[in-house]
Amino acid sequence: EPEVTQTPSHQVTQMGQEVILRCVPISNHLYFYWYRQILGQKVEFLVSFYNNEISEKSEIFDDQFSVERPDGSNFTLKIRSTKLEDSAMYFCASTGLATRGTQYFGPGTRLLVL
Amino acid sequence: DAKTTQPPSMDCAEGRAANLPCNHSTISGNEYVYWYRQIHSQGPQYIIHGLKNNETNEMASLIITEDRKSSTLILPHATLRDTAVYYCIAPSYNTDKLIFGTGTRLQVFP
């Protein structure tokens, strides 16, 4: 069964450093998403991406964040200058053309900013 | 998004049916109800969705009341591996984003 994959599974970085989180969505999907979950808190929507552009973003997704689909398979989330409060699990999700609430999530990347 | 209300926690004996309720009284006529679950710190897992009719798949059944103001997710024979937080979500028709609340923490016990 096709799955969303994410790398790395864990990332430790120093405050102020740039990080890139990588995702490989399910191959025939066209809509891509990033969510995050701070430890002990709710899963929060960050951004949705379709047709090579952002379709929706949350207030969390400020200028420090960017997303890209550099090739036909990868979908990345970049945080330019990490802050302590960026420490969280980051989940990538994707879906096809059917009801877009049916999203398939990856296992997540645990980001720790020191 | 329609506001959803779920009990914070429920218990279920292994092998029994788990019935998880959700209220979504402000749901609009064209908004679907989706159910997801999250096992420990894994990524959320899609379970099932519906609009008006009851739905069933290999994981669960979804019963939606006729007025669509509430629904129930049914896991017919709960196992220990069904222990998770279950989320009921009713996104607006014009958005893809899923807004996760605090969900129901289901504990399946032997």
Interface with most residues: A-B, 28 and 20 residues
Instruction: Tell how many strands the DSSP assignment of chain B holds.
Output: 9
Largest sheet of chain A: 7 strands, mixed
Number of helices of chain B: 0
Strand content of chain B: 35-45%
For the residues shown, what is the average pLDDT of chain A? 95
Counting DSSP H or I runs of 4 or more residues, the number of helices of chain A is 0
Shape of chain B: globular
Share of residues in strands of chain A: over 45%
Residue stretches of chain A low in confidence (pLDDT < 50, at least 5 long) are: none
Largest sheet of chain B: 5 strands, mixed
Quaternary structure classification: heterodimer
Sheet/helix structural class of chain B: mainly beta
Class by alpha and beta content of chain A: mainly beta
Descriptive account of the structure:
The complex is a heterodimer of chains A (about 110) and B (about 110). Chain A has about 110 residues and is an all-beta fold. Chain A contains no helices and eleven strands. Helix content of chain A is about 0%, strand content about 50%. In chain A, a hairpin with an 8-residue loop joins strand 9 (about 90-95) and strand 10. Chain A is globular, with a radius of gyration of 13 Å. Chain A starts with a strand and ends with a strand. Chain B contains no helices and nine strands. In chain B, strand 5 (about 55) and strand 6 form a beta hairpin. At the A-B interface, strand 4, strand 5, strand 9 and strand 10 of A face strand 4 of B.
Helix and strand topology:
The complex is a heterodimer of chains A (114) and B (110).
Chain A: E1 5-7, E2 10-13, E3 19-24, E4 31-37, E5 43-50, E6 53-57, E7 65-68, E8 75-79, E9 88-95, E10 104-105, E11 109-113
Chain B: E1 9-13, E2 18-23, E3 33-38, E4 45-50, E5 55-56, E6 61-64, E7 70-75, E8 84-89, E9 104-109
Parallel strand pairs in B: 1-9
Antiparallel strand pairs in B: 2-7, 3-4, 3-8, 5-6, 6-7, 8-9
